[in-house]
Write a structure and sequence with these properties.
The structure is a single chain. The protein is 85% helix and 0% strand. By secondary structure, the chain is an all-alpha fold. The longest helix has 38 residues.
């Protein structure tokens, strides 16, 4: 009996310890998957092929499932620790990063578009930005100031992406204007646009993270 009582008292710290907030955990899952997808994108740019395409598709499906679970839990929860609108918007922004990366690889595969130096650099920038978003999510809520720093870094990477996107388009229009090159130009323009849009969604995610920190931490 005494042992049971002592055991109960010893368990008190664990009983009162704050449990991980499940919505933040779901968002962290999405952020971690985004890094995996971005790494796979860089690999694809170096080694294009069906294997890497299928790998990215599998990761995209996994990310979709995490988002579906988050939305379902959100719809069934009356009170949330942070604004439900912020949770939903951040989840969507992170998911859109992955969707744009998948659209990039899918179209490159279907249209038989070869990688370019611009595509490789854009993929590297997205990987770095995704890592910053992941780190920002990992630091909430224990180190909100550090999380803000990573959100700012993610936005800074987008500045380079915007410049690179314009440089890539300018390079396309300097190519010879015969029919074959025009077709290649049109294909690459769409691919560049997907990666640019992915970077814009990084900015959206970073802004929402900062809003959450200002309001709740």
């Amino acid at each position: 009996m005494i042992d049971a009582i002592l055991g109960w008292f010893k368990s008190l710290p664990a009983r009162f310890r704050k449990k991980p907030e499940r919505f933040l955990e779901r968002l962290r899952q999405q952020a971690h998957l985004t890094v995996e997808v971005a790494v796979a994108l860089s690999d694809y740019m170096d080694r294009p092929g069906k294997k890497n395409t299928h790998h990215i598709r599998d990761l995209e499906k996994s990310a979709d499932e995490v988002r579906r679970i988050l939305v379902d839990e959100l719809n069934r929860t009356f009170v949330t620790p942070i604004d439900r609108e912020d949770i939903h918007a951040l989840s969507r922004a992170i998911d859109d990063i992955i969707d744009n990366i998948w659209a990039t690889v899918s179209e490159m595969d279907l249209l038989e578009v070869l990688s370019t130096p611009y595509l490789k650099e854009m993929a590297e920038l997205l990987q770095a930005a995704a890592e910053e978003i992941k780190l920002a999510m990992d630091r909430i809520p224990l180190h909100p100031g550090v999380a803000t720093t990573h959100a700012i870094r993610a936005r800074a990477i987008d500045n380079r992406m915007e410049t690179l996107y314009v440089e890539a388009l300018a390079d396309l229009f300097r190519k010879p204007k015969d029919l074959e090159n025009i077709v290649v130009m049109m294909k690459l323009r769409e691919i560049y646009r997907h990666l640019y849009h992915a970077s814009q969604r990084v900015v959206d995610a970073a802004n929402i993270i900062e809003d959450i920190i200002v309001k709740f931490y």
